[in-house]
Amino acid sequence: MDPSACGGSIMLQEGEGPMARPEKVEEVAQLKARLDKSAAVILTDFRGLTVGEITVLRGRLRSVGAEYRVVKNRLLRIAADAAGIEGLEHQLEGPTAAAFASGDPVPVAKVIQEFSRQSRKLTIKGGILAGAVIDDARTRVLADLPSSKELLALVVGGIAAPLSGLAGVLSGLPRKLVRALDQIREQRAAA
């Protein structure tokens, strides 16, 4: 039977079998480009969500620098292979939507986890963090981390606390020296 009669297979190069449809090749190239430029990708099963709920989720993700879109598992698998990402196959079953995080992945994971808890329909499948595949449990751990801004504030606070203490000690030294010199002057004047 001719493979093209039943939908054919999607190939990135001509020599690998039936010719791929140009729109599928373009979509794979776009997915690969998104994978390459994303700090993280969080995969979800969106079964049961209404169009309105997906729109709300997209808006929340956009506000933290992520793009959320429904993807075809086969095309994402091909794009991941082309990007050198291995081990994603078991997460690509059933309907899949991906949140592509261009910046800090923690707020993106937090939004998805919060939305998943609220809707009870969205399921986190796992994802990709810095080119490595992570499972759903690690994605939830990522959501529980402080954001990079929060971590930076903690570091700055940790550095600033000793410095402000040192400034207090140093500003106290001249006052103590002045008092000590004043007491010595009073003792000499009395003698």
Tell me what the structure shows:
The chain has 191 residues and is α+β, with helices and mostly antiparallel strands. It contains six helices and five strands. It has a five-stranded antiparallel β-sheet. A hairpin with a 2-residue loop joins strand 4 and strand 5 (132-135). Helix 2 runs antiparallel to helix 4. The chain starts with 21 loop residues before the first helix and ends with a helix.
Give the helices and strands, then pairings.
Layout lengths: L21 H16 L2 E6 L5 H13 L2 E6 L1 H10 L13 E6 L3 H15 L3 E7 L2 E4 H9 L3 H43 L1
Antiparallel strand pairs: 1-3, 1-4, 2-3, 4-5
Helix pairs in contact: 1-3, 2-4, 4-5
Overall body shape: elongated
Main β-sheet description: 5 strands, antiparallel
By DSSP, the count of extended strands is 5
Order of secondary-structure elements: HEHEHEHEEHH
Q: Give the count of structural domains.
A: 2
Q: What characteristics describe this protein?
A:
single chain, 191 residues, Alpha-Beta Plaits, 2 domains, 6 helices, disordered N terminus
Kindly summarize this structure in a few lines.
This protein has helices spanning 22-37, 51-63, 73-82, 105-119, 136-144, 148-190; strands spanning 40-45, 66-71, 96-101, 123-129, 132-135. It has 191 residues and is an alpha+beta fold. The protein has two domains: 3-145, 2-Layer Sandwich (Alpha-Beta Plaits); 147-191.
